[in-house]
């Protein structure tokens, strides 16, 4: 007679070592786990709420400048090093991880207009209102040794911008003309002008490294090729563009920050119309910088905010501001895609998280999984009205409808009539 | 002459004096004026050629050159003429644009811009690929994970101790890599021989070949197991055909193999001749012969056997070249009879498959006779008395023809009679009368429907009809129709003649006589109200707490207790609106959570719903699935600098396998270039 007995294979439930995690048998039958959509919907709603709750983007403020911060630059090889120039001609080198100033250099008389780091990270260049281009060593000089520039080039006119080539020893400056310099020479190897007498910004294309673009005072954006003797093309807009930035992952796209409160993303092959217009700022946009992944960019504005835009969306994903932050003049996205740095009129450099609610530091695998699951849920249910309402919740407090009286334009400008 | 000389001398004297005077004046001024020393070139005045341009200002014209040309006897008169023509030609070339103008027009600029746009556009594929990518991992250029090779880690390390040196010497002798070359020569050779991608491709090919082989094997096995004789016969025939085709080719390409094949054929012929296999002398054949009188299949089987025998015993004649030529000549002279003959078709029951379809009515009859059962057995016999046979056939044909004619005549008579009757009854205007045969309507109507009727369609119709007697007539009819294609007359009158409004209204009323819209609407509304009303729920369990069984019902008390009446529904919104139905299915509390519009990437609501329905969480999916589903689109590494896209990556992607094969040589080249520029 055959007797059937319950049998269990210990291989199914006994761990090989005590360090192994317990095996949890699980039945994935849908009928055993009903209401999957409502449950996930609730989770998505909660995830969205938590995201807004934990949105605390401000990390640190670096104080020490004695005038407004006019320019910022990232170190090419070190994540923790940042360079900043102020309106009083001082350049400071910062250590971000320790949040302290490493070096202070009285670099120029008048404004420091722009800084850029050399691609190897051993030196950096500054241009200022004193019509000079100075090259500085990245490491600090020894004790009691005066800060002296490696090279100084005296120019004829004020330089307003500088950018270094991605892999060669050449750099570009702009002022009355756009000049291309060799590091070994004291005169420009090439100089471009196209009926304009002042440029505000020049940037090298990080991908197609021989291309450049500049913003000019005649409201135009001019493209150049370093190898050619003439500029390539220019597009004239309604208002002046202050700065521009090339997308580091898309060779032909760049975004410019405009005086008309908008940013425009252009494809350099089709300059007739911008690819996208990014609106949200309520004052002139002063600076723009792409994230190193090329998916988003950050913009600094005269309206005292910085905003983060997805590169193909018309409206911003995030707006950062604090009570004490004045006009933001310069902004940079860190090379590890984690932080945003902003320099503003009231002498402070602020460090922000690129993702406002992101948990910093090393995550455990379960935390990581949870974050990813929540992201997925948020994306999946983003169109549902309740989720949407929370995700798009105004971060600024706006007046209640009716609390501010409506005054017509005619009435607005007369205060009182005295008899 | 002399006078002139004197004069000149005087003149020169004067000049000298004048110069001296000037010198003296200039010296009075204190500083001595520097004398300009001019150097003149002799070549301007004197040339080794006979052409001179006189002074520096004068230019050489074409006519100057032509003068010498005329003098030289060696120049051909043709060129002289051409040059003369050129001289006469008054047209001038357009001025080249000035430098300013070129910049203004921006030719250079446009050229440069186009060049750079082209250069930049190379990135398009990469960028689009990245946009579409499920996941992007930054930094793009990552160092390979895992332990690094010893040689890479310890650079510049040398064996120092005697033991180490000994080991190294052994390694050297075995051609093992010691320091710089990471791979052994053997490995290198292997890598050179076949790259990974090639190997992959090769493996895929082999896999495919194997799969195909097994598939064919399975197919053959299946075919072999089929018991149907007919199937195998067909297969055999197909094979034979194939073989013949191949044989023809083989004759051209490989004559020796063809000869062997021929020998084989010869052998089989010999065997056939020796044996009595297909000669209808066996037991089975005899029985068939008895049955042949009554059974058609038996007859055909016997015939087949004989045919086979004939085929097999036929002598193979390898035509020599001369013979072939002769034959070709003959062919050219006179076309053989079979060219005009219709092809013999296996299905002899259907005479219409024999061609000659649209010819005279007698045509099909001839073939018809050949297919008659009585004749076929005669034909099957060995061709001893062919002439007699033919004679008999002809006779039978005539008989057949007579029969047909008789029938036709009879039909004609009948038709006339019928027509007369109809004429008497009511004269009809239709012209189709002529075609009203005793054939079924479907057959008759075909030509009308489609004028481009092909014969195959007729065959089909005939098969269905299957009465040989009427076919002739049909064909005649068809031919007639073909000759004079009758086009349906276009409608000249409008379908509905103009009518008064009242009439139209009446028509509409008539058309919608059955519809009562109002009552339908009311019914609909009532139905909706019914559906919306809360229902009574009956929870009685028969036999629970009391006796149950067939014929027993739960008590009234119990029924009252367990029948749950829901509260009355709130009054409907359309209660007092008789002509309106307001649906109350929409639940406001749920609607607040529902999506009102179809979100962007989805094309229909079904798509969106299916996307929503599939859960992502761990509760419903296995761990791997969850990992896959929740994988983020952008992955960055903590503390790693993300460099902009580099040209090298792009080139690598662009070239693909070739670049991988060639290795780092081109890359190194570009890097060197960069360095050179750098040093400059």
Quick overview of this protein structure:
Chain A has 419 residues and is mostly beta strands. Chain A has helices spanning 36-53, 365-380, 385-391, 409-412, and strands at 58-62, 69-74, 81-86, 90-95, 100-106, 112-117, 123-128, 132-137, 151-154, 161-164, 170-174, 178-182, 190-192, 199-204, 211-216, 220-225, 231-236, 241-246, 253-258, 263-267, 276-278, 285-290, 296-301, 306-310, 318-320, 328-333, 339-344, 349-353. The radius of gyration of chain B is 54 Å and the shape is extended.
List the helices and strands and how they pair.
The complex is a heterodimer of chains A (419) and B (680).
Chain A: H1 36-53, E1 58-62, E2 69-74, E3 81-86, E4 90-95, E5 100-106, E6 112-117, E7 123-128, E8 132-137, E9 151-154, E10 161-164, E11 170-174, E12 178-182, E13 190-192, E14 199-204, E15 211-216, E16 220-225, E17 231-236, E18 241-246, E19 253-258, E20 263-267, E21 276-278, E22 285-290, E23 296-301, E24 306-310, E25 318-320, E26 328-333, E27 339-344, E28 349-353, H2 365-380, H3 385-391, H4 409-412
Antiparallel strand pairs in A: 1-28, 2-3, 3-4, 4-5, 6-7, 7-8, 8-9, 10-11, 11-12, 12-13, 14-15, 15-16, 16-17, 18-19, 19-20, 20-21, 22-23, 23-24, 24-25, 26-27, 27-28
Chain B: H1 2-28, H2 42-45, H3 62-71, H4 77-88, H5 99-105, H6 107-121, H7 124-132, E1 136-137, H8 150-153, H9 162-173, H10 185-193, H11 196-225, H12 229-253, H13 255-274, H14 283-291, H15 296-313, H16 321-333, H17 362-371, H18 373-380, H19 386-425, H20 441-449, H21 455-465, H22 471-483, H23 501-511, H24 517-532, E2 537-538, H25 556-562, E3 563-564, H26 588-591, H27 605-613, H28 623-629, E4 634-635, H29 647-655, H30 657-662, H31 665-679
Parallel strand pairs in B: 1-4
Antiparallel strand pairs in B: 2-3
């Amino acid at each position: 007679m055959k007797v059937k007995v319950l049998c269990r294979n210990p291989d199914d439930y006994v761990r090989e070592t005590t360090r192994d995690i317990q095996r949890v048998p699980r039945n994935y039958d849908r009928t055993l786990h009903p209401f999957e959509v409502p449950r996930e919907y609730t989770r998505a709603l909660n995830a969205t709420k938590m995201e807004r709750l934990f949105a605390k983007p401000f990390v640190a403020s670096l104080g020490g400048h004695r005038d407004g911060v006019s320019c910022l630059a990232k170190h090419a090889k070190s994540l923790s090093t940042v360079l900043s120039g102020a309106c009083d001609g001082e350049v400071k080198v910062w250590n971000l991880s320790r949040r302290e100033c490493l070096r202070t250099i009285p670099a120029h008389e008048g404004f420091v207009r722009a800084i850029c780091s050399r691609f190897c990270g051993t030196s950096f260049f500054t241009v200022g209102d004193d019509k000079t281009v100075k090259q500085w060593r990245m490491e600090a000089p020894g004790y009691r040794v005066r800060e002296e520039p490696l090279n100084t080039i005296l120019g004829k006119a004020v330089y307003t911008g500088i950018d270094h080539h991605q892999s060669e020893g050449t750099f570009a400056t702009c002022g009355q003309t756009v000049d291309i310099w060799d590091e070994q020479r004291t005169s420009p190897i090439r100089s471009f002008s196209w009926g304009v007498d002042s440029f505000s910004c020049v940037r090298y294309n990080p991908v197609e490294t021989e291309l450049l673009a500049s913003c000019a005072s005649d409201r135009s954006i001019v493209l150049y090729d370093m190898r050619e003797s003439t500029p390539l093309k220019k597009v004239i807009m309604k208002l002046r563009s202050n700065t521009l930035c090339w997308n580091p992952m898309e060779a032909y796209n760049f975004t410019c920050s405009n005086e008309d409160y908008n940013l425009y993303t252009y494809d350099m092959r089709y300059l007739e119309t911008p690819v996208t217009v990014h609106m949200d700022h309520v004052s002139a946009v002063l600076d723009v910088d792409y994230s190193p992944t090329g998916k988003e960019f950050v913009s600094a504005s005269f309206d005292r905010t910085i905003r983060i835009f997805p590169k193909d969306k018309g409206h911003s994903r995030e707006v950062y501001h604090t009570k004490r932050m004045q006009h933001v003049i310069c902004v940079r996205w860190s090379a590890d895609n984690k932080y945003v740095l902003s320099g503003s009129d009231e002498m402070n450099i602020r460090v922000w998280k690129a993702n406002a609610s992101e948990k910093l530091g090393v995550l455990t695998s379960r935390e990581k999984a949870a974050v990813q699951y929540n992201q997925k849920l948020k994306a999946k249910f983003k169109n549902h009205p309740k989720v949407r309402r929370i995700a798009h919740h105004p971060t600024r407090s706006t007046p209640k409808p009716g609390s501010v009286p409506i005054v017509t334009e005619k009435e607005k400008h007369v205060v009182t009539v005295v008899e | 002459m002399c006078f002139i000389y004197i004069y000149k001398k005087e003149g020169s004297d004067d000049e000298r004096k004048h110069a001296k005077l000037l010198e003296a004046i200039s010296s009075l001024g204190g500083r001595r004026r520097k004398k300009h020393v001019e150097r003149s070139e002799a070549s301007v005045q004197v040339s080794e050629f006979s052409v001179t341009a006189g002074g520096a200002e004068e230019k050489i014209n074409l006519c100057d050159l032509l003068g010498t040309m005329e003098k030289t006897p060696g120049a051909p008169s043709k060129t002289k003429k051409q040059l003369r023509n050129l001289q006469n030609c008054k047209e001038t070339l357009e001025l080249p644009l000035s430098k300013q103008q070129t910049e203004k027009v921006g030719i250079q600029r446009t050229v440069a811009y186009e060049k750079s746009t082209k250069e930049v556009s190379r990135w398009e594929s990469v960028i689009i690929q990245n946009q579409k990518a499920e996941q992007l991992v930054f930094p793009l250029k990552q160092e390979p994970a895992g332990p690094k090779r010893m040689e890479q880690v310890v650079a510049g390390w040398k064996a120092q101790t005697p033991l180490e040196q000994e080991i190294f010497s052994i390694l050297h002798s075995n051609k093992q890599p010691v320091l710089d070359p990471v791979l052994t020569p053997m490995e290198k050779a292997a890598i050179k021989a076949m790259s990974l991608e090639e190997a992959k491709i090769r493996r895929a090919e082999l896999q495919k070949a194997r799969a195909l082989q097994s598939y064919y094997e399975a197919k053959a096995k299946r075919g072999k197991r089929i018991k149907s004789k007919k199937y195998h016969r067909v297969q055999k025939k197909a094979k034979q055909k194939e073989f013949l085709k191949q044989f023809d080719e083989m004759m051209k390409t490989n004559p020796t193999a063809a000869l062997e094949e021929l020998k084989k054929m010869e052998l089989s012929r010999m065997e056939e001749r020796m044996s009595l296999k297909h000669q209808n002398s066996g037991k089975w054949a005899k029985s068939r012969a008895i049955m042949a009188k009554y059974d058609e299949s038996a007859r055909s089987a016997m015939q087949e056997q004989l045919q086979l025998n004939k085929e097999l015993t036929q002598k193979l004649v390898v035509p020599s070249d001369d013979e072939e030529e002769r034959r070709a000549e003959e062919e050219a002279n006179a076309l053989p009879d079979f060219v005009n003959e219709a092809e013999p078709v296996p299905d002899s029951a259907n005479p219409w498959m024999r061609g000659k379809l649209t010819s005279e009515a007698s045509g099909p009859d001839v073939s018809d006779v050949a297919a008659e059962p009585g004749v076929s057995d005669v034909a099957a016999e060995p061709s001893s008395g062919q002439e007699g046979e033919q004679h008999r056939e002809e006779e039978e044909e005539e008989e057949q023809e007579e029969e047909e004619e008789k029938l036709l005549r009879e039909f004609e008579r009948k038709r006339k009679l019928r027509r007369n009757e109809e004429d008497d009854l009511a004269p009809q205007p239709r012209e189709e009368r002529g075609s009203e045969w005793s054939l079924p309507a479907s057959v008759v109507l075909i030509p009308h429907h489609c004028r481009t009727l092909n014969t195959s369609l007729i065959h089909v119709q005939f098969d269905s009809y299957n009465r040989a007697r009427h076919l002739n007539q049909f064909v005649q009819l068809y031919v007639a129709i073909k000759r004079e294609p009758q086009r349906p007359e276009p409608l000249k009158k409008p379908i509905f003649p103009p009518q008064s409004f009242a009439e139209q209204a009446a028509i509409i009323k008539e058309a919608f006589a059955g519809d009562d819209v109002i009552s339908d609407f009311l019914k609909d509304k009532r139905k909706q109200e019914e559906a919306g009303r809360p229902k009574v729920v009956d929870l009685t369990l028969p036999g629970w707490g009391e006796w149950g069984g067939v014929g027993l019902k739960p008590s009234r008390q119990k029924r009252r207790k367990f029948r749950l009446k829901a509260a009355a529904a709130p009054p409907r919104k359309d209660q007092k609106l008789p002509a309106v139905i307001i649906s109350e299915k929409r639940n406001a509390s749920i609607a607040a959570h529902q999506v009102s519009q179809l979100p962007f990437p989805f094309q229909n609501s079904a798509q969106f719903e299916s996307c929503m329905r599939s859960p992502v969480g761990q509760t419903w999916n296995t761990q791997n699935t969850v990992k896959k589903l929740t994988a983020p689109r952008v992955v960055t590494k903590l503390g790693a600098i993300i460099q902009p896209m580099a040209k090298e990556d792009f080139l690598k992607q662009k070239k693909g396998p070739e670049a991988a094969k060639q290795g780092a040589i081109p890359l190194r080249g570009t890097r060197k270039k960069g360095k050179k520029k750098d040093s400059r």
